[in-house]
Amino acid sequence: MSNCEYKPGLEGIPATQSSISYVDGQQGILEYRGIRIEDLAEHSNFLETSYLLIWGELPSATELEAFEHEIRYHRRVKYRIRDMMKCFPESGHPMDALQASAAALGLFYSRRALDDPTYIRAAVVRLLAKIPTMVAAFQNIRKGNDPVRPWDDLNYAANFLYMLNEREPDQLAAHVFDVCLTLHAEHTINASTFSAMVTASTLTDPYAVVASAVGTLAGPLHGGANEEVIQTLEEIGSVENVDAYLENCLQRKSKIMGFGHRVYKVKDPRATILQKLAEQLFEKFGRDEYYDIAVALEKAVTEKLGNRGIYANVDFYSGLVYRKLGIPTDLFTPVFAIARVAGWLAHWKEQVEENRIFRPTQIYTGPHDFQYIPIDQRRDF
Ligand code: SDX
């Protein structure tokens, strides 16, 4: 029998030391490598931020150019991976397609040299470069079309939107999408990152690390909530129904998607930025019918549950931004994954640099010394 106190969900238990990001949940502060998320959203871009997260400092202009160039060069995926994706059922969820495709990369790049910086860099570049291509490829394949080849003239964010729709995206749309990627890139030891770290700690390959994290991100309590927020707004249907919907949820004790957070006890700073991005898009491309419902729902939840520290989280407004960018609802979580690959890889690198396999303990609650009963002597119930 262990003397350790058991904390469900490991709440408040430090499971690692990390210098990658920091959250102050009481004040609503998020920093990547000490830089405020608001500054990165305004001044940086996703690839520069990824470099910062993974290598620990902002790149020089030459370093950034080299990194961007490598990523452009590695965007294509092997035809066998595309062919494999053609065998996936069209009705399957794109997160499952992404998890399988990320794992499949390990078949093609099977060398494992975790103490070789060249290997680490190649794996980082490949994963950052190919994950968006694989998300877009599945989207095209399930519509009955061929995957769209990446367009080398376009930057990371613009190229993804291009591969989805086969037309060059509007500049504001590409910029907003890039900021969304920056906002979602990293968030301390959340569930999917923890999953990545546990997998990394076995010294397996980085493709398995990312595949395990994608599987974890997919759940509705984590990244999958962004998809469910849109379903909630659809179900509410109009601003007049918000109070009744909320009352019903509270009576049934069901969770309101896009609200609450293990660490933040105030509004998630990323939700504040995403809300502003949504408004920028509405100004240029027209308002979204669900936006007013979302604002009314946020107000009502804050009034009822704010005193318990339940506020809008990152998943609440992201879907409204993605909808306006023409991204289908079931791609919202894969888009989250495209961004979070940067954080997973930063933690993978940090983990293998000073590794000890994760192997916590448990408090056993079952019986001891039970007698084995042969099958012919067991009773049917
Ligand atoms: C992400 O960890 C990260 O950093 C994650 C993330 C990232 O960037 O990686 O920020 C991304 O995953 C955002 C969260 C997306 N999920 C949702 O929006 C789903 C809805 N929210 C929740 O289910 C919940 O708030 C969690 C999962 C986010 C946090 O879960 P906790 O910390 O285990 O909290 P809990 O479920 O134990 O709730 C504590 C109390 C409960 O009430 P009591 O039983 O104490 O009376 O708060 C209530 C809950 O019922 N509560 C909610 C609520 N969230 C918490 N009540 C209604 N609606 C909610 N959304």
CATH evolutionary superfamily of the largest domain? Citrate Synthase, domain 1
Can you identify the CATH class of the largest domain?
Mainly Alpha
Helical coverage, percent range: 55-70%
Mean pLDDT: 96
In CATH terms, what is the fold-level topology of the largest domain? Citrate Synthase, domain 1
How many structural domains in the coordinates? 2
The dominant shape is globular
Q: Helix and strand succession? A: EEEHHHHHHHHHHHHHHHH
N-to-C span: 32 Å
Which spans of ≥5 residues are poorly predicted at pLDDT below 50?
none
Strand adjacency order, main sheet: 1-2-3
CATH arch. level architecture of the largest domain: Orthogonal Bundle
Individual helix count = 16
In this structure, how is the largest beta sheet organized?
3 strands, antiparallel
Instruction: Report the β-strand fraction as a percent range.
Output: under 5%
Bound molecules: s-citryldethia Coenzyme A
Number of DSSP strands?
3
- Taking all Cα atoms into account, the compactness measure Rg is 22 Å
Secondary-structure-based class equals mainly alpha
Describe the structure.
The protein has helices at 37-43, 46-55, 61-73, 79-86, 94-108, 117-142, 156-165, 171-184, 191-200, 206-217, 225-236, 242-252, 269-285, 291-305, 314-324, 332-353, and strands spanning 21-24, 29-32, 35-36. It has 16 helices and three strands. The chain has two domains: 36-221 and 328-353, Citrate Synthase, domain 1, CATH 1.10.580; 225-324, Cytochrome P450-Terp, domain 2 (Cytochrome p450-Terp, domain 2), CATH 1.10.230. Helix 6 (117-142) runs parallel beside helix 7. A hairpin with a 4-residue loop joins strand 1 (21-24) and strand 2 (29-32). The mean pLDDT is 96. A three-stranded antiparallel beta sheet has the order 1-2-3. The protein has 381 residues and is mostly helical. The structure holds s-citryldethia Coenzyme A (SDX). The site of s-citryldethia Coenzyme A (SDX) has 20 residues, from helix 15. It comes from uncultured Synechococcales cyanobacterium. It catalyses: oxaloacetate + acetyl-CoA + H2O = citrate + CoA + H(+). Pathway: Carbohydrate metabolism; tricarboxylic acid cycle. Belongs to the citrate synthase family.
